[in-house]
Amino acid sequence: MRDDTRRWIQADQAHCWHPFTRQGEWCDPDHEPLVLTRGEGAWLSDSEGRRYLDGNSSIWTNIHGHAHPVITAAIREQLEKTAHVSFLGFTHPAAVELAEKLCAFFPPHTLERVFFSDDGSTAVECALKMAVQYRTQTGEPERRGFVAFADGYHGDTLGAASLGGVGRFFERFKGHGYTATHVRGLDELHALDSGNLAAVIIEPLIQGVNEMRPWPPGMLAGLRSWCDETGVQLILDEVMTGFGRTGKMFACQHENVTPDFLCLAKGLTGGTLPMAATLTTAAIYNAFLGAAENAFYYGHSYTANPLGCAAALASLDLFEREKTFESLPVKIEHLRAGLSALKAAQPLIHEIRQCGFIAGIELRRPDGVKFSPEKRIGEAVCLAARAHGLLTRPILDTIVLMPPLCTTAAELDHALAALGAAISSNPGIDTRPPFA
Ligand SMILES: *Cc1c(COP(=O)(O)O)cnc(C)c1O
Q: In what order do the strands lie in the sheet with 394-395?
């Protein structure tokens, strides 16, 4: 190991606290965290000079590849003007243009207002607060409740977390945030008293953190109809599905659904800078006009950060310049064929769940029974895949494969071969790897 790698690891283990990580294992002297130092296209390299395909787009954020010269140049150009100015009481060109571009993806007079914030959680937080305040200002203060879907994920701030349905993350915080009713599907909605409900939130087309689980086709359109009948507002959390992952720019476009609130983050800047947007309609926005107390008293210091806006504009531009949506269908089919060949060759693969360029590969025992959770097979397989040049993370025993949209067919083959080799090595069946 190089001296600088050793130094970074020691200082990390002494001072850093990582998200969703068992720090005891992370800091174990036998655990050697990868120190990632560079990225180029779909590839990352570590401080020891090893290269890996970025198999989960750096936790679902990267779109056009790392260090893309067009996005880098746009950030640099903005940086030379100013890194940050306040959006509170002022405006700036990059935010104006970005807001206009985002609205232009939707039919006229639908989503036409953009509220910027910092990450997926704040994009959701903002939609929730707008939904509650809207009701108090339109004479329906009793409509304060939210509906969310079981096993869904909407972020980690307290409000967003209270709508989350993943017990192992959120159970201990129950009662500290919003009250939400969790349902499993459309049929359960009809039993609810919609007169008390402000809004329903969903990850459209596919639930990410719920081991990459797609909804049945037509589900989203059905939910929109229920919302129209009951007056419950529809919040779409496209933090994961937005910006091409599902094969269209936004997942809701597959079922021609326009929500009342659309939450965007992860891929907004192409995976370069933290930035989020909550889009909404004129009907909602108009309820915040008039009296001083009607204003939306919410915001963050770095709201509409100019560097983030410049990166987002460049990323949107790249979809056109690189004709991303022309090459994507072929790559999606290449991924589908590759995954089905992998499943045929690997008895431990129980199910492949794919939605566009997003895939979950669920591992189970050959008899179809789940591995016991303590074995942490998913983690062991991902750890083994590193040795074959692939980085990704599992969700329980489901391996996530969703590389940047720029990934080529040959690079997809590399990722699939690495996964195959990792699974074939039967890692972790009897070991307990330190993995974070
Ligand atoms: C990641 C994610 C979030 C939270 O976004 P952060 O940027 O991590 O706060 C919310 N919703 C969904 C669907 C996500 O995948």
A: 349-355, 358-363, 398-401, 394-395
C-beta of residue 258 within 8 angstroms of C-beta of residue 282: no
pTM check: above 0.90: yes
Ligand 1 pocket test, candidate residues 246, 266, 302, most atoms within 8 A of CB: 266
Q: Report the chain (436 residues): mean pLDDT per 10 consecutive residues.
A: 97 97 95 97 98 98 98 98 98 98 97 98 98 97 97 95 87 85 96 97 98 98 98 98 98 98 98 98 98 96 98 98 98 98 97 98 94 95 97 98 98 98 83 42
Question: Is 237's C-beta closer than 6 angstroms to any atom of ligand 1?
Answer: yes
Residue type, 224: R
The pick from 60, 118, 126, 154 for probing ligand 1's pocket by mutation, whose C-beta has the most ligand atoms within 8 angstroms, reads 154
Q: Where are the domains of the chain?
A: 34-64+323-425, 71-321
What's the rounded Cα separation, in Å, for the pair 36 and 57?
14
Return d(Cα 412, Cα 58) in angstroms, integer: 16
Cβ neighbours for 1, distance < 8 A, ≥ 6 positions apart: 32, 48
Domain 34-64+323-425 grouped into CATH 3.40.50.10140: no
CATH of region 71-321:
3.40.640.10
Verify whether ligand 1 is closer than 6 Å to residue 54 (CB atom): no
Residues 6+ apart with CB under 8 A from 151: 165, 166, 207, 209, 210, 213
Closest to 163 (Cα-Cα) out of 172, 171, 176, 152: 152
